[in-house]
Amino acid sequence: MGDQWWFCLKHMAVEPEQGCPNKDRMGPYETRQAAADALRTAADRNERWKDAEREWEGDEED
Questions:
Q1: How far is 13 from 38, CA to CA, in rounded Å?
Q2: What is the model's pLDDT at position 42?
């Protein structure tokens, strides 16, 4: 297994495996860049969930 990276929500920074407690972090990610994009990735996934929920409920916006 290669290096793992984390995004620290306390410091708003990318960290290696040795860093803040996991309760304060998102991850692990396979690359430093993926960890750096963690908040954007989460926001994109949340938006897709909202869209799917609207579609499921028949409330899709035009």
A1: 10
A2: 96
